[in-house]
Amino acid sequence: MKNIKYLLTLLMLSVIGFSCEDDFLDKYPEDQLSSATFWKDENDAKASLVSVYDALQPPTDQNPYRGCASWASLGVLADITPIGFERQSHRLRPVGDGVHSGSNIYLSTAWTLGYRGVVRANDFLTHIDDIEFSGSNSDQVKNAMKGEAMFLRAMNYYWLVELFGDVPLFTHVPTVDDAATPRSPKSEVLNLIKEDLAFAVANLPRRANAETGRATKGAAMALQVKTALYETDWDTAAIVSEAIMELGDYNLVSDYGDVISLENENNEEVIFSVQHVFLNDAEPGSYVEKLYANASSASSGWSFIQPTLWFVDQFERIIQNPQEGIDYVNEGGLNSSGEPKISNEIYEYFEGRDPRMDYTILRPGSHFIDLNDNDIVYPHELNGPNHSFTGLHMRKYVVPGSGKSVDWDSPLDYIIFRYADILLCHAEAVAMRDGVANVSQEVLDKTINKVRGRASELLPKYTAGNITMNDIYRERICELGFEGWTYFDMKRSGMIEINNGYQVQGLKVIANETVEFNPDGIGNVRIFNPSVHYVWPIPSDEIQKSSNALVQNPGYPQ
User: Which of 34, 93, 242, 369 is deepest in the core (most CB within 10 A)?
Assistant: First the structure.
């Protein structure tokens, strides 16, 4: 079988359509795909499975929210935590501000895309046993393919439960008669997730025996860990995360900057990622870069998601006096008054911190390779430095230089699970199960200290009895910031309640003049009501289509 990237490319313009009603047509034209003409042989089964992977991609219908709601762009959820801010006020920012309702189109898109993946997986699982496969190991091949579909269905249901709580549960392809299906308790959805993942773990190949980009035993186990953390089943999370570590299939990349890199995709740290290809704006590239990048990048970025000073403050200062011990040069130039455009106060605020900060964001004094391959200094040498309301831009998931990325078509894969995440999940699970004061030095050294050591040898190691849960959660923010997990992490830990009364803090960038701290804050003072905002509202249009069979989450209008 071909590499999943290649197969996704072939599928790009081939949408597999299925009738919603059995009696919709008496006859099916032989030159058109339908459930009656498609499921004929094992090639159809393979194509259907690729379509389930394709559901992880953002939609390709020119929807203006296409890049904002899918597994391929979960990093945008950083906007609704203290680490991020959204430039445009009508999309996710109301969710972060705590003033959203079921009419928010982002929430509707997230719901739709989650069920798109579920329905495609259900269709595959409904038909796969009707297809005869050749070869003596046909049952093994079928079970592995089922494992892939079940993993993908479980991942989509996990996302839906994390965001919305109780959701309708389907294990078949729904018809119009299912429109009034009520929400199932999340416990029932989680039971299906766990059943699917148990089958996937038992039947999926190890990394070494799998095609690049496809689900593996390790990927299914990683989702088992995430599901256990969601349920606060610390023992299961600890056991399964340790089992992943003992597999020996994954390792930390030696340089943090190489983890998310076009030149180093599918590296030894990646457990599962959404695969993208570069077809010069012909799909199916990633939209993440468009949302993250600045206007000087080849993708002509929107600076849609912006880091905050709260995020910067999570990175420890490992060189106390930045002007000593490093090559400290103010490269910002002078303004019209002959003063530094970037004051030493601003420089010193950022310099000397955990180096993962500079691999994640662009801040005053950062260097960036623009679309013409020029080495420019942020912010004043960038196009549109004022596009960022916080005065900061993203570096992570932005492809530097020319010729590698274009508008809406980044080739850079979006990582869902990676090994450093699993190590930190293990540290958290053991600490919550046994008590953080009882975590052994052995556990610390093979998890959080290993992750920190990769970032910098100057980051001090944690010692047994001298670590807190806040230390573990802060490490997750620094290591995984803007990779899609911070929102879920902060909900699980309760840190998301920081949002109540929080106002984003940032910098003020005056074009060709100065960069200074913004004392007034940015945007609205946020609201987070713990009795309401741990889940999102059910989309209003879904409630309407169900004839009110779907009941709204408490605190939101029906």
Answer: 93
